[in-house]
Amino acid sequence: LTYSSTNLAVNTWYHVAVVRNGSGSNNMAMYINGVSVATGTSSGTQTTQTAIYIGGDGSANCSFPGLISNFRITKGQALYTATFTPSTSPLTTTSQGATLANVSLLTCQSTYMIDNSQNAFTITASGDARPREVNPFGWTTSVVVC
Q1: Cβ contacts of residue 9 below 8 Å, gap of 6+?
Q2: pLDDT tens, position by position, for the chain (146 residues)?
Q3: ∠ CA 30-33-38, rounded to 5°
Q4: pTM above 0.85?
Q5: Measured in whole angstroms, how far is the alpha carbon of residue 87 from the centre of its chain?
Q6: How far is CA 20 from CA 23, 27, 61, 76, 89, in A?
Q7: Which residues contact 27 (CB under 8 A, 6 or more apart)?
Q8: Long-range contacts (CB closer than 8 Å, 24 or more residues apart) made by 46-55
């Protein structure tokens, strides 16, 4: 699934959602600010032995040059399947119709690198992946500096 656009502005927050849904769960769609901007298919599977890299692909050559906030993975539940209005508050394990049991990972929500889902996975920061005090919902009011 590839999206390429010169319409994305620097220093602007965007709500990005990638959804796997449909026939055999192979259909994929990318939404930016609630609008579908790309579609494709994928037959790959994510296993428990596969590392997930947030903001990169695990190599030093490919990393996201921005900030990430409220990163959530749901399994077995496609939350966005048509145009939607992005949340104006931090994500939770039950917001936007999510079901607690389907939220596999919820992170990048505070100044700590933690998983706020019921799984409480250990997250290992790499490089300059330290938590920041800023998010798309305004400044964090109760900040603990690490």
Answers
A1: none
A2: 666 666 788 888 999 999 988 766 678 899 999 999 998 887 766 666 677 888 877 766 777 778 888 999 999 899 999 999 999 899 999 999 999 999 999 998 877 788 999 999 988 877 666 666 677 877 554 444 43
A3: 25
A4: no
A5: 13
A6: 10, 6, 26, 9, 24
A7: 20, 21, 39, 40, 41
A8: 52/105, 54/107, 54/108, 55/129
Query: 79: which 2 tokens?
Result: 């939350």
Q: Are 15 and 73 in contact (CB under 8 A)?
A: no
> How do 27-32 and 16-21 pair as beta strands?
antiparallel
Distance CA 70, CA 109 (A): 5
Q: Could you tell me the two tokens for 77?
A: 């539940």
What is the per-residue pLDDT for 143? 43
C-beta separation of 93 from 117 below 8 A: yes
- State the residue for tokens 């390429």: 4
